[in-house]
Each structure stands twice: as C-alpha cells, then as structure tokens.
Amino acid sequence: MTQKNVQYVCTGCKSNLVVDGKITMGVHNAMNGTRGILRASPIIGDYSISTSPTLKTKLGDRLNVLCPCCGLMLNSDDSHWGKILLRRAQKEYYVLFSTIIGENVTYKLGHKSQRPQVFGPDAEKVKKPNWSTMLVSS
Ligand SMILES: [Zn+2]
Question: How far is the CA of 125 from the centre of ligand 1 (A)?
C-alpha cells in the first residue's frame, strides 16, 4: 500500500502529525510521569516506535498522547486509546491505537455504516473501544 496522499492529523487543530515520515506526538507516561516524543510508523499494523530518551517506559505502562502543535490530549474518553484522524482520498477515518506499552492493536473507523477494521497481534486480547462515542459522524 502506498502512503502517498495519506495524512494523519490532530483531531483538534487538524495539524499534520507526520514529520520526516513518522507520526510524531508528545507523550506523558501516566505511570511514572516522564515525558518525551513518540514517533510511530504511518503504516497501520507496523508497531515499530521510537521515543526520546527522556521518556521511561516498561511493558504495561499507559501513555497520554498529545498533539505537538496544540497540546490537545489525543486519548479517548476511557484513556485506553489514542485517537487521530487519517485522511486519504478525501475520506476521513479515525485511527485508534492502544496507548498501553506492548499492546499492539489498532482500529480504523470510518462512517457509522462501515465496520471498524482491526489490526495487530493483540486485538483478541483487548477489550474493544466504545464505538458509539468514536465513529465519524455525518
Ligand atoms: Zn492539535
């Protein structure tokens, strides 16, 4: 799948989150208070990430993710999921990714009529998000 014409943007200020080919977000470890920058692959299902050395994490820690432009917290209401907007071919989707370190699961949500698509090896183990508050409306 080509990544051309794919954009990931903040759900608030709509700033482009892709810097040098990586989705770039501020992060705050809710467990130990450390902060830093997280860079993730724009390819859904690729869970390679890099973080700045100031951020300390271990398996099972939960991260708060923040837009680097406007500072909006991108976690969903129950904090388990980070939520960003994917734009492709004039369509918009929400991409939900687990904010738990080591939990590799991502959902792609379109309009209410479409079934969410799930990605990642841990999808079966993790409680599904509450779709009703998250689907793209209209
Ligand atoms: Zn923003």
Answer: 30
CA of 79 relative to ligand 1 center, distance in Å: 17
Ligand 1 center to 120 CA (angstroms) = 26
Q: Please choose, from the candidates 100, 54, 56, 53, the residue with its C-alpha nearest in 3D space to the C-alpha of residue 75.
A: 100
pLDDT attached to residue 135: 58
> 52 C-alpha to center of ligand 1: Å?
20
CB 27 within 8 A of CB 65: yes
Residue positions counted in the chain? 138
What contacts 24, CB < 8 A, 6 or more positions away? 17, 18, 37, 38, 39, 68
For the stretch 24-42, pLDDT in tens is 999 999 999 999 999 999 9
Q: Could you tell me the distance, in angstroms and rounded to a whole number, from the CA of residue 2 to the centre of ligand 1?
A: 25
